[in-house]
Amino acid sequence: MVPFARYLAMNKITNIKRYHIAKVYRRDNPAMTRGRYREFYQCDFDIAGQYDPMIPDAECLKIVHEILSELQLGEFLIKVNDRRVLDGMFEVCGVPADKFRTICSAVDKMDKMPWEDVKNEMVSEKGLAPETADKIGEYVQLNGRSELIDKLVQDAKLSQNKVAMEGLNDMKQLFVYLTLFGVEEKVLFDLSLARGLDYYTGVIYEAVLAQSQAATQTQHNELSEQVSVGSVAAGGRYDGLVGMFDPKGRKVPCVGVSIGIERIFSIMEQRLEASDEKIRTTETQVLVATAQKNLLEERMKLVAELWKSGIKAEITYKKNPKLLNQLQYCEETGIPLVAIIGEQELKDGVVKLRVVSTREEVDVARENLIEEIEKRTCQP
Amino acid sequence: MVPFARYLAMNKITNIKRYHIAKVYRRDNPAMTRGRYREFYQCDFDIAGQYDPMIPDAECLKIVHEILSELQLGEFLIKVNDRRVLDGMFEVCGVPADKFRTICSAVDKMDKMPWEDVKNEMVSEKGLAPETADKIGEYVQLNGRSELIDKLVQDAKLSQNKVAMEGLNDMKQLFVYLTLFGVEEKVLFDLSLARGLDYYTGVIYEAVLAQSQAATQTQHNELSEQVSVGSVAAGGRYDGLVGMFDPKGRKVPCVGVSIGIERIFSIMEQRLEASDEKIRTTETQVLVATAQKNLLEERMKLVAELWKSGIKAEITYKKNPKLLNQLQYCEETGIPLVAIIGEQELKDGVVKLRVVSTREEVDVARENLIEEIEKRTCQP
């Protein structure tokens, strides 16, 4: 988000919605044993601009939901929280302002250790009063949806805190929008989600995949206590970052998400290795093929016709390829159709169109070929 | 091509066709005043594998032709030559083997200076005998297509040179394939094309754009003497490069082309600035809009329906946007359709579909909306 914010400030951009997939480089020394390399691919989606509350924020969550659903990565959960709810909560619990950050990073460990250990860290290592820690504990063990937000809005202490109430009201609005988008079931308001809060100013979120093996454990909350295999997407609102790079401090409100594509790819690869699924390695729709000799020139003419009409087509780069090899190539790469020509087809003005998966073959008049291929491959 | 060849060798890949667009970094100190930066985008297309002669080579030229035609960059010419024709020519002219390379780089200047100056460089600076230079001059001033190849095949000296004849026979075959692909008119066999020959082993090519202002000059050859604005694509066959990176020296024949996308983009930008053409800055097909207040939730529901069907759709992130602003946004960004809802449309179960360019509006039953949008935007 930092390079994006700098880019907006330098180019005086006040409105943009964009995604970005690129190789980036870590500044720190990554722990390569944990699969963190210095060079890696990052995928970001961000919406910048002065808009009405929570509308772009809801779209970011919708996009995370869509990506994780479409890729069929199994059960997932998107935890959300709000910087302002956390700040307000720490305040009403009596955490000194200079301890917000360190207490925050302790709270963030609640997905990895039980509350008692987190409390212990707060009290013994970070010098927080045990009563203060207990008050925090009452909040950060909560998670839920609209009903929890309603409860917190009426909470004796939080309701007195202006910042917390702003966060809670926005969170309520967010769940209304998430329901309209049909994604609220996979989103959970979780007061222990704390992430690095350095530049987040509003909503924060993190998507985690659930391991299905853990589904047999006794569970209080069906989704949140499945063993997480780690975060696959995370982000939030960062309204102050662009202003830090603008010489005049002009702010551009932003909300965005980073998708952990390297982790997602490694999960998908594992799943594919475990199954017998074929990965389609090409976008080619048709292979122009022949069973006879000396038809390279005819194949070239036909493939050029298909290219001209925008069909993704290929020929084998051999003068006299075997039909079997051409069909095997389609099966290996996932090309769905074969347009076969021979002396007879040329004489009759037809092309034999073969569906690779079913082996069905049909003669198509040459002038109808484009239309027929489009009908069979275009998925509008 | 070097990183690609290394990649093939390291991963033992013997067959691949791929394109690649990425930021790369120059090793040398670029002359930034001439628009050469150390960081720049490169676009490559390569075909690797043991195939029958000139089939993938012809496809590379077809692709260059397609790119330059589709982008409407104006008149262009693709010059082709062959490393073996150049080597054979130098041999039969009597150039000492250790002078091939330096004479080659002199020949390569013929697009920028007249033959007399090039000859002068060969003789005075590079110590070539004047008769040898004159013999070279007879060849390198030639350009043409099949008829020139036929003439050279019968050339008393060249026809005695095995390497040159291999190159000429392949060149003849290449033009047959280019004719089948319908691109031979823009391709010119030019014996002065010499490029850096370090790793090329067969056909070489370079695409140049012609400046139309130059079209009024007296011209011997219509295309080749228009003033070139420089190379926008170049490449050739490099059959030895992968073997250099393979520990056992296993060769993988390759042919490829680099597209000068930065130069092409700057030409396209200049042209767009000069015209009043609108650049479409989004792929969005439909904006879901309203003229009335309090319909954000209905817009959200509809946009989610469209997303679910794979339609590229947007809403404005405002609770109560003005219709005019929503329509202006479509005009600015080039979104072709607007799906307008109001109280009446919701009651009637319809959506008002507006075509931005014609301002035509038609009521579409909600259950037919997806189909109607697809019909109007899908270009199969």
From TrEMBL, chains A, B:
<dbReference type="Pfam" id="PF03129">
    <property type="entry name" value="HGTP_anticodon"/>
</dbReference>
<dbReference type="InterPro" id="IPR045864">
    <property type="entry name" value="aa-tRNA-synth_II/BPL/LPL"/>
</dbReference>
<feature type="binding site">
    <location>
        <position position="26"/>
    </location>
    <ligand>
        <name>L-histidine</name>
    </ligand>
</feature>
<keyword id="KW-0436">Ligase</keyword>
<feature type="binding site">
    <location>
        <position position="42"/>
    </location>
    <ligand>
        <name>L-histidine</name>
    </ligand>
</feature>
<dbReference type="InterPro" id="IPR004516">
    <property type="entry name" value="HisRS/HisZ"/>
</dbReference>
<comment type="similarity">
    <text>Belongs to the class-II aminoacyl-tRNA synthetase family.</text>
</comment>
<feature type="binding site">
    <location>
        <begin position="199"/>
        <end position="200"/>
    </location>
    <ligand>
        <name>L-histidine</name>
    </ligand>
</feature>
<dbReference type="GO" id="GO:0032543">
    <property type="term" value="P:mitochondrial translation"/>
</dbReference>
<dbReference type="GO" id="GO:0005829">
    <property type="term" value="C:cytosol"/>
</dbReference>
<dbReference type="InterPro" id="IPR041715">
    <property type="entry name" value="HisRS-like_core"/>
</dbReference>
<feature type="domain" description="Class II Histidinyl-tRNA synthetase (HisRS)-like catalytic core">
    <location>
        <begin position="19"/>
        <end position="264"/>
    </location>
</feature>
<dbReference type="InterPro" id="IPR033656">
    <property type="entry name" value="HisRS_anticodon"/>
</dbReference>
<keyword id="KW-0547">Nucleotide-binding</keyword>
<keyword id="KW-0648">Protein biosynthesis</keyword>
<feature type="domain" description="Anticodon-binding">
    <location>
        <begin position="285"/>
        <end position="375"/>
    </location>
</feature>
<dbReference type="InterPro" id="IPR036621">
    <property type="entry name" value="Anticodon-bd_dom_sf"/>
</dbReference>
<keyword id="KW-0067">ATP-binding</keyword>
<dbReference type="InterPro" id="IPR004154">
    <property type="entry name" value="Anticodon-bd"/>
</dbReference>
<dbReference type="GO" id="GO:0004821">
    <property type="term" value="F:histidine-tRNA ligase activity"/>
</dbReference>
<feature type="binding site">
    <location>
        <position position="46"/>
    </location>
    <ligand>
        <name>L-histidine</name>
    </ligand>
</feature>
<keyword id="KW-0030">Aminoacyl-tRNA synthetase</keyword>
<dbReference type="GO" id="GO:0006427">
    <property type="term" value="P:histidyl-tRNA aminoacylation"/>
</dbReference>
<dbReference type="GO" id="GO:0042802">
    <property type="term" value="F:identical protein binding"/>
</dbReference>
<feature type="binding site">
    <location>
        <position position="195"/>
    </location>
    <ligand>
        <name>L-histidine</name>
    </ligand>
</feature>
<dbReference type="Pfam" id="PF13393">
    <property type="entry name" value="tRNA-synt_His"/>
</dbReference>
<protein>
    <recommendedName>
        <fullName>histidine--tRNA ligase</fullName>
        <ecNumber>6.1.1.21</ecNumber>
    </recommendedName>
</protein>
<dbReference type="GO" id="GO:0005739">
    <property type="term" value="C:mitochondrion"/>
</dbReference>
<dbReference type="GO" id="GO:0005524">
    <property type="term" value="F:ATP binding"/>
</dbReference>
<dbReference type="GO" id="GO:0003723">
    <property type="term" value="F:RNA binding"/>
</dbReference>
